[in-house]
Every structure is written in C-alpha cells, then in structure tokens.
Amino acid sequence: AAYDRTQIEFYYKKKYDDVLLFSLITKVIRPIRKIRQTTMITKRPNPNSKQHAARLTLDNKLSESVPSRTTLEALAVECASEPSPDNTFQYAFCLTKSAKADERRYAISILDNLVKEGYEHQVDCIYGAAIALYLNGTYAAAREKCEAILRAEPDQAPAVELHLACLDAIEEENAKNVEKVVIGGSAAIAGVGLALGIAGLLLGGSKR
Fold first, then answer.
1. Which of 61, 84, 108, 179 is deepest in the core (most CB within 10 A)?
2. What is the DSSP code (8-state) at residue 59?
C-alpha cells in the first residue's frame, strides 16, 4: 500500500511539473510572437507614401538601365585612347549603374575626383555618385549627396526622386535593425527566464 501511494504521488507531481513547464513556455513564447508581429508591420514602408512610390519608380528605372559589358568596354577604350574630363565622366556615369558593386564603387571615386578637380558638370557628378551609393545600399551617404544638390538646385527632379527613395530605404533599414535588436533581446531574456523557471522546477522537485 505504501508503494502504491508513492507511485501515485510521483505521478501527480510529474503532471503538476509538466503543467507548470508548459505554462512557463507559453508565457515566454507569446510576447515574442507579439513583438515579431509588431516589428514585421513596422518595417514595411507605407505603400501609399510619396517616398515609397518614388523608390519603386526609381528602382524600376535603374533595373532597366544596367549598361551592357560591350557599352562599358567601349567607353573604357575611348576614355583610355582619348583622355578628357568629358570622356572620363561619360565612362564613370555609365559605370554607376553597373551590375557589379565594385565597379559602382570605382565610379564613385572617379566622379568624386572630377568634382575635386573642378569639372564643370558638378551636379551630374554628384548625382551619379549618389546613384551608385544608393545601388550599393549606402543610403545615408546617397541622401547626403542628394541634399547637397538640392541646396543648390531645389527643383532638380532626378535628385528629388532619389532623395525620396533614400528616405524610404533608410526608414525600412532602421525598422529592420530595430526588429533585430528587439527580437534578439527578447529571445535572450526569454531564454534566461525559461532556464530559471526550469531550474526552479528542478530545485522544487528535489526538495519534495
């Protein structure tokens, strides 16, 4: 009879611990799910905003204006055989829309040098560099170049469009970073809470 009573007590104790553990896990998971749902909503740009519309339009234009290798090679040959600021600019500006990030970085350095050397088409150089920066995902730097253009020429339509696109991209990027921090921090806290909860159950069980 004593053996049967011990078995019964063990059975109910195990059931009780299982219920506590399930409850603990549920309390940990629910807030994480809620945070994930909230941040997923936050990171999506407003599809009706002016800056998001400008970004979609610009991205479509850029996807259709990637230069061919033949074009780039021809411009490079011309630049080498007949060196001039204009030929250098034509080559670099075309290179800003290259499909390769390293070529776009090279274009930025060329255009920045042309600006330093006092090339007459300063705005075009800055805009080209801003396009390359945008395509490389360096949105804050691209925005700064756009703002430099707009301070001199407030109605420069391409710079206005690119500036709006940069703002939209930065907004989305910031929201994604917030999501990573929030979810990562919540997961770490949840992990500690779960570990402490399980440890409590184990210690409680050893005392009984």
1. 108
2. H
Q: How far apart are CA 63 and CA 55, in angstroms?
A: 12
Q: Which residues contact 163 (CB under 8 A, 6 or more apart)?
A: 143, 146, 147, 150
Give the pLDDT of the chain (208 residues) as one tens digit per residue.
444 555 545 555 555 555 566 665 666 556 656 555 555 545 556 777 899 999 999 999 999 999 999 999 999 999 999 999 999 999 999 999 999 999 999 999 999 999 999 999 999 999 999 999 999 999 999 999 999 999 999 999 999 999 999 999 999 988 786 666 655 555 565 666 656 666 665 555 555 5
- Count Cβ atoms within 10 A of the Cβ of residue 182 and give its class: 0-12 exposed, 13-18 middle, 19 or more buried: middle
Alpha carbon 82 to its chain's center: 41
Q: C-alpha distances in angstroms, 35 versus 46, 62, 189, 192?
A: 19, 35, 13, 18
Calculate the CA 79 to chain-centre distance: 36
DSSP 137: T
